[in-house]
Amino acid sequence: MKMRTKLVSILSIAVFAAPLTSYSAQGNAENGKKIYDKRCVWCHGEGGAGDGPAAERVNPAPRDFTSGMYKIKTTPFDEVSPKDEDIFRMISDGMPDSSMPPWKDMLSEPERWDLVAYVKKFAGLENPKKELDFSKQIKTSAESIERGKKLFLDRCTECHGEAGKGVAIKKLKDDLGFRTWPRNFTKPWAFRASNDPKDIFARMSVGIPGTQMPSFADPASKKKLTDEERWDVANYVSSLADSTKEVKAENTVVKASRIEGELPSDPSDPKWKEAEPSSFFLVPQIIGQERFFTPSNNSITSRAYYNDKDISILIEWDDRTASVPGDPKAAEIAEGEVSPDAVAVQFPVTIPLEMEKPYFGHGDAAWPVNIWYWNTGQDGVAQVTKLLNATGFAKKDERDPAKAGLATKGVYDKGTWRVVMKRPLVTAEKDKDIQFVEGRFTPIAFAAWDGTNGEKGSKHTMTTWYWILLKPKAGMSVYFIPLLVAGLVVGAELLWLASARKKKSS
Ligand code: HEC
Ligand code: HEC
């Protein structure tokens, strides 16, 4: 409420000031309303107060347009109004890693300008009097990045962490009282705007209104940075992008290379660096009983090796907290109780080979899946490995992982978990365990739990089905059964949820 009163007073001053900026386009607010009432009300609400029917379920909350507050703008920190181009951009491109969708494929350019005109009306926003000056941009170079790094370590790490992965150092809340997470700079696709130095410079100069991300151009701030310094930091932050974490649409297969000799069973083994990474989006599980919409982990990366005896799978994911129950630091950051961080991979027990034998008997989900599960364990004493078989919704069977030869090991380092799962290619219980065959595409799915984020049991993030392929020796044929993907995705996702739910507090 306090913030709003302040805004209104600034706005009333702004009314008397003539706009400096000229606009490339002026929308029609009347037409904007028609589109808004059809497309935007669900989240932003009929009156623009951010209180649509879906609002309750999303974090961050949909913008309350009556507040006149915009997060991504290119006008200075002491200028309330964004440029029309700023609003147009967010409507067109959406705000990644939030529920704000991109509209550029759904709505024409004039329609999006009409929306800008309408949305501004909720707070009676005037055109801005000032805009950011990008003219002193320092081109990126090794020297600039080095200077930027020093400033970054001094100014940014208290929230974004030393490695820039946004590890939770303290509990941050936005002005509405909701939990916020500082951005992870190694994942450029998860930026609300982008990791182009110009965008980073703008965020540092303006801050992100409504959140604890401050302005570093505000002369009243002890942490103020000069224009040049902000460009150096922007170049450094931009350099932190890690392409191995990038999720590519065409990437649907974890490709295991064959090596001679021992497979790496330690997550820190340098051999992993040479294995080809495949990254997938983690999405919140929203079908099961305990829905949740505020995941903190958003992608997972896997690599694999095999030899004549075993397969070794490395699973890596950024997690802002090493959630080990009993750890006081984790308790301080957590929402409520701390559950262990966990990860699981899932396979069907047998790979269907022919379409003539339908995999799903009579439409029920009575086919078994194999689940390999790891968690941090209690009090950091011993990590936990579990081997589970799920048969339909009704039954989950916990088996002895040692008997199947399944071994796991996890290591947490500067905001990233690395877990290795290793097992013989073939096991004694062929009717219970997936048997790996060189050259065959085997369905694989992942799930992760962030125990500091209240994730346990059916509350977790997951991927859909992908494939793991034991890359064959030259000349060997490859079996591929793409037709089954659709069926597997639907059936197995349900099973996945059912089995996860039963795990309860594991
Ligand atoms: C599914 C929910 C949802 C729908 C539908 C939706 N939005 Fe949003 N919108 C959000 C959320 C959530 C945010 C805030 C994201 C954040 O704070 O990081 C947001 C933010 C915005 C912003 C603020 C940008 C800024 O810089 O602060 C604008 C403008 C916006 N939405 C316009 C629209 C328009 C126009 C439509 C309809 C064409 C629309 N939204 C539909 C969820 C939605
Ligand atoms: C007091 C905590 C805090 C400090 C200090 C801080 N940030 Fe942030 N930062 C945040 C939070 C919180 C967010 C996420 C805001 C949101 O919810 O959109 C954020 C988001 C960002 C983004 C968002 C990019 C995008 O498009 O999504 C950038 C860039 C950024 N910070 C850069 C920096 C840099 C560079 C520094 C140091 C000069 C810094 N921050 C210091 C808390 C902080």
Protein traits:
Immunoglobulin-like, alpha+beta, binds heme C, 24% helix, 12 helices, Cytochrome Bc1 Complex, Chain D, domain 2, 14-stranded mixed β-sheet
Hetero groups: heme C
The structural class is alpha+beta
Largest sheet: 14 strands, mixed
Mean pLDDT across all amino acids: 85
Topology pattern, helix = H, strand = E: HHHHHHHEEHHEEEEEHEEEEHEEEEEH
Tell me the domain tally: 3
**What proportion of the residues is helical, as a percent range?**
10-25%
Low-confidence stretches: 1-24, 354-365, 499-506
CATH domain class of the largest domain:
Mainly Beta
CATH domain topology of the largest domain: Immunoglobulin-like
Counting DSSP H or I runs of 4 or more residues, the number of helices is: 12
Using the CA coordinates, give the radius of gyration: 25 Å
CATH architecture of the largest domain: Sandwich
Describe this structure in words.
The chain is of the alpha+beta class and 506 residues long. It folds into 3 domains: 2-121, Cytochrome c-like domain (Cytochrome Bc1 Complex, Chain D, domain 2), CATH 1.10.760; 142-238, Orthogonal Bundle (Cytochrome Bc1 Complex, Chain D, domain 2), CATH 1.10.760.10; 243-503, Sandwich (Immunoglobulin-like). 24% of the residues lie in helices and 18% in strands. The protein has 12 helices and 16 strands. It has helices spanning 2-14, 29-39, 41-44, 84-93, 109-121, 142-155, 157-160, 197-206, 227-238, 328-333, 401-404, 485-503, and strands spanning 172-173, 179-180, 253-258, 278-281, 283-284, 299-306, 310-318, 342-348, 368-375, 384-391, 395-399, 407-413, 416-424, 441-449, 461-462, 466-470. Strands 3, 4, 5, 6, 7, 8, 9, 10, 11, 12, 13, 14, 15 and 16 form a 14-stranded mixed beta sheet that branches. A hairpin with a 2-residue loop joins strand 12 (407-413) and strand 13 (416-424). Helix 6 (142-155) packs across helix 9 and helix 8 crosses helix 9 (227-238). The longest helix has 19 residues, at 485-503. It is globular and about 75 Å long. One heme C (HEC) binds at residues 39-40, 42-44, 54, 58, 60, 62-63, 70-72, 87, 90-91, 95, 98-101, 103, 115, 119, 192.
